Amino acid sequence: MRPLSPRGRAAVPVLAAVLAAAAGCADVEGPRNDGDLGTAHAPQTLWENIHPDPPGPGQQAGKAAVVPGLPKVANAGMRGVNAVEVVRADITSATAQDRGTGLLVDPRAVQRLARCTQAVDGGPHCPVRPAVLHDVTGDGRDELITALDIDGRVSELRVYTVRDDGSIARILARRGVLEGVEVAAEHLAVREPTSNPEKVSVSDYAWDPKAGIMNLSQLTLDECAGTKDSAIPCSTSRG
Q1: So what's the pLDDT on residue 77?
Q2: Would you give the distance in Å from CA 216 to the centre of its chain?
Q3: 171-210: per-residue pLDDT in tens?
Q4: What is the value of pTM for the model shown?
C-alpha cells in the first residue's frame, strides 16, 4: 500500500468529522424505537342495533305543561300560591298520564301526598318541602321551587311558573337524590351522590326561553367534603 501524501493525511480528520456529523444527524432525525407504546383501540359500541322507543304523548318529564285543575293567578306571580295544592294537582295529573309506570312521577307519590292536610303548609307530616320563591326565568316574577320527598332518599323536584294568561305551568320535573339544591339568577343546580364517595354530580339547569322550560345546560363532577378542602357534603353516598 502506498503511503498517504501529506495532503492526503490532512484530509483524513476532515472526512472523519464529516462522517461523524452525518451519523449524528441520522441519530437525531432518523427513526427510533422507543419501545412498545401500546395499541390504540377504538371504542366498542354495545347493542348498537337496539334502541329505545320514542316517548309517547305526555311521557316527557322535561316538557313544560300547564297544571290542570288550578285556578288562574291574578297577579301573574307565584307569591301567595299554595304550594301543596300545586304539587297535588301536578302529581295527580302526571300519575294519570303515565298510568303508574313511573315515567313522569314516582308511583308512590300520590300515596305520599295523602299525608298532607288542608293546612297551608300541608301539616307536620306533609312530605312537600317548604316553597322557595325565586325568579329563574328573568321576567322579574318569582317562580315556585319545591320538592316532594318520596322516601328517605328519592325526591321529586318541581319548578312552576305563571304564564301571561294566569295559568300555572311546570317548567322543571326532576326525580333524584337531592344531596343539595342551589339557585342563582336563572340557574338551578342539583347535586347528587355518585358511585364514587369522593365525587358529587352537579346538574345545572338554565331557563330556556325558546323551549319555555328549565333545560339541562351543564353536567359536572365536584369534590365532596374532606377531599381537597371542599365544603360540599356527600353524606348520602356513604354507607
Answers
A1: 83
A2: 6
A3: 999 999 999 999 998 899 999 999 999 999 999 999 999 9
A4: 0.76
What is the SS3 string spanning the chain? CCCCCHHHHHHHHHHHHHHHHHHHHHHHHCCCCCCCCCCCCCCCCCCCCCCCCCCCCCCCCCCCEECCCCCCCCCCCCCCCCHHHHHHHHHHHHHHHHCCCCCCCCCCHHHHHCCCCCCCCCCCCCCECCCEEECCCCCCCCEEEEEEECCCCCEEEEEEEECCCCCEEEEEEEEECCCEEEEECCEEEEEEECCCCCEEEEEEEEEECCCCEEEEEEEEEEECCCCCCCCCCCHHHCC
For the record, the C-alpha cell of 74 comes out as 291574578
* Three-class SS of 2-21: CCCCHHHHHHHHHHHHHHHH
